[in-house]
Amino acid sequence: MNNNYFARFMNLLIFIFIVIMAFVLPTLPILVNRYLEYAGNQTLSTLWITVFLYLTAIPFVLLLLMAKKLCNNVLRQEPFSHSSVTLLNIISICAFADFFLYAIGTFAVLKNLLSLTLMVAAFMVGLVGQILIQLVKHAMELKQENDLTI
Amino acid sequence: MPIIVNVDVMLAKRKMSSTELGEKIGITLTNLSILKTNKAKAIRFSTLEAICKALDCQPGDILEYKVP
Fold first, then answer.
1. pTM of the model as a whole
2. Does B15 contact chain A (CB < 8 Å)?
3. Total beta-carbon pairs less than 8 A apart between chain A and chain B
4. Which pLDDT tens digit goes with each residue over A63-95?
């Protein structure tokens, strides 16, 4: 039962994130302008930063949607299914895509070492996703064996 | 799998229905069907004991090894 509460909480959290993204994405150019005015950094290009952030948002939004589906799988009491493996695979690919985008963006666009943190975080999500795929596959085998033990 | 479960043969010998056996040993018809169609990967000693008790037979009467 505790797991269910946790999955519901995560589902809600992801939903809130999606709503925030829905508000942030259309206003991103304005936000970037405001940030650059506040930061007072003239060497950065507003256009490139906006394009870069929109590019990184694509895998991120996809990742959020897949994470929501994964939570729904847990809520439907079927966490060890082929669909979970597919979802984790997409999550992992999205995280690696974000990792590469940030790897390029850190040096080409942002020129800021702080974004290295995001790069490492995306890489870790991808890595953990791949490990989880192996775990779910093993768990699926065990579950099938358990289900077929009379 | 070379191990064959002959529950249906014993059921016919004892003139007992699957539903009746399921009720006696406390397993669902779905699980009994998995057992009868040889899809089961393992059988618990407790289930085997219950089946033997219900059908008044030995494990050897239910399980059979066939050389593949």
1. 0.77
2. no
3. 23
4. 999 999 998 888 888 888 889 999 999 999 999
